[in-house]
Amino acid sequence: MSIVVECVSKRYGAVQALDGISFTVQEGTVLGLLGPSRSGKTTMIRLLATLLAHDSGRILVDGLDIYRDARMLRTRLGLAGQFVSLVPQLTGYENLVMAGRLCGLGRHRSRSRAAELVDQFDLSEVADRRLDRCSCLVRCKFGLAAALVHEPRVLLLDEPALGLDAATRMRLWDAVGNRVLGGRTVLLATQCLEEADLLARRITVIDCGQVVAEGTGDEVKALTGGVCLEAELRNDGDLAAAQAVLSPIADAPLVTDLRTLRIRTPTARGAELLSEAVRILSQNGVQVREIGLRLPTLGDVLQAVGQRAVADRK
Ligand SMILES: Nc1ncnc2c1ncn2[C@@H]1O[C@H](COP(=O)(O)OP(=O)(O)OP(=O)(O)O)[C@@H](O)[C@H]1O
């Protein structure tokens, strides 16, 4: 089952949440819908889940119109993430049974399916614990398991690993990624480029309800010029000096965060720029708490896309 979104717009009063957005998720693949907060990800997922109506455009799932054939499509869709709430006072197992019942499974089948999922997700030790007494990682696993209770062919995931730090997020996907995603058509909404890059065959980047970039993970990362040089200063009094000495050697404009005293810039020269920056900062007496290269983030992608747009307009 493929997902085709054609020029879809959605407005809430004065807010244009989606503004002519188009993308396709090929059958059996994962598409990462990557965007910052308030860019329209949840709105897109809610439209696909038939929980909301769009103002214009067209959405097809498996060739069927999402509204005309909503009833039939709903049984084939699984949802996990922000707006799908499990009941915190129930145990994980009870939540899975409830999810089965809500999907129309009989009592017996709901129980056997819940037991199957507990087993497959390696959750037996915590299955009888109230969900609000479980770790965030365990809650995320139960959220994903609940979305699979009726074995949907299409999965809509709205930041399903929200609340997990980067390392735990990777542990989650290491443990259950294949089971959750394998063979399904998946739309994964996330703010984390690393997560989208790990899980998705293609990534569509959105900002302010519009598609601003798309491609494979490598293509999207390449927009930023590769890696990012990032320095954290010890004293805010050094910020101006650091900017003055780094600007001439950087490959792209510097971005400075006054709150965290961090200066960053994307670079294609990696280690060469790093050693140059260390030398020049030390020569000029700028005290650095930490300096290094890191993988690009969504913020770097949006900055690169913005700079391209400005350059194109000139
Ligand atoms: N029910 C609503 N009524 C009014 N405005 C809304 C409503 N839901 C969302 N919005 C607005 O629409 C825009 C897109 O919101 P949406 O939740 O789709 O973005 P998002 O990318 O999922 O954000 P987040 O990552 O913070 O959840 C935002 O400006 C938001 O404030």
TrEMBL record:
<protein>
    <submittedName>
        <fullName>ATP-binding cassette domain-containing protein</fullName>
    </submittedName>
</protein>
<dbReference type="InterPro" id="IPR050763">
    <property type="entry name" value="ABC_transporter_ATP-binding"/>
</dbReference>
<dbReference type="InterPro" id="IPR003439">
    <property type="entry name" value="ABC_transporter-like_ATP-bd"/>
</dbReference>
<dbReference type="GO" id="GO:0005524">
    <property type="term" value="F:ATP binding"/>
</dbReference>
<keyword id="KW-0547">Nucleotide-binding</keyword>
<dbReference type="InterPro" id="IPR027417">
    <property type="entry name" value="P-loop_NTPase"/>
</dbReference>
<dbReference type="Pfam" id="PF00005">
    <property type="entry name" value="ABC_tran"/>
</dbReference>
<keyword id="KW-0067">ATP-binding</keyword>
<feature type="domain" description="ABC transporter">
    <location>
        <begin position="3"/>
        <end position="233"/>
    </location>
</feature>
<keyword id="KW-0046">Antibiotic resistance</keyword>
<dbReference type="InterPro" id="IPR003593">
    <property type="entry name" value="AAA+_ATPase"/>
</dbReference>
<keyword id="KW-0813">Transport</keyword>
